[in-house]
Write a structure and sequence with these properties.
Blueprint: E1 6-8, H1 13-27, E2 47-53, E3 56-65, E4 70-78, H2 87-101, E5 106-112, H3 116-121, E6 125-133, E7 137-145, H4 149-165
Parallel strand pairs: 4-5
Antiparallel strand pairs: 1-2, 2-3, 3-4, 5-7, 6-7
Length: 166
Amino acid sequence: MAEILIIRQPKTEKEFELMYNLRWRVLRKPWDRPRGSEKDEDESISSHFIAIADNKIIGTARYHKINEKVGRVRYLAVAEEYRGRGVARSIMEAIDLTACNQNLKYLILSARHTAAEFFKKMGYKIMGEGKTLFGEIKHYKMVKKFKENISRMQEIIDNLRKTLDS
């Protein structure tokens, strides 16, 4: 990716609005779901991440702790014209760092069948079949078990270096 990519949490009401709009456009609109369907009851207890390039929000994901050992990732979305450039990987690395800093042992998610290989590359394992969304999008329940803190941090740093070098 030639552009500078920034991963951070949204800061303003406008950034949240743009983040939710991207989430809706990528994850709900293609299946004729109404605005508002891109949100759920855990929005206020979650950490939201955005990817910014060319002064616009091009990716997003959400993370929250379920308990002291487990966190959940939801709503990973990247604008179509920015896919295949490491945006999703960078967002997930930021979530890994956050989970690491909170000493979590596991991250769980429900991955669309089309994204399962990506999450496998990120260290997730399929634990079983998940729900079928909108009657047609097959999902897998996936989990990532973290290593001990020090080796986990080194692995994240090494992965970030690889991303920067590519």
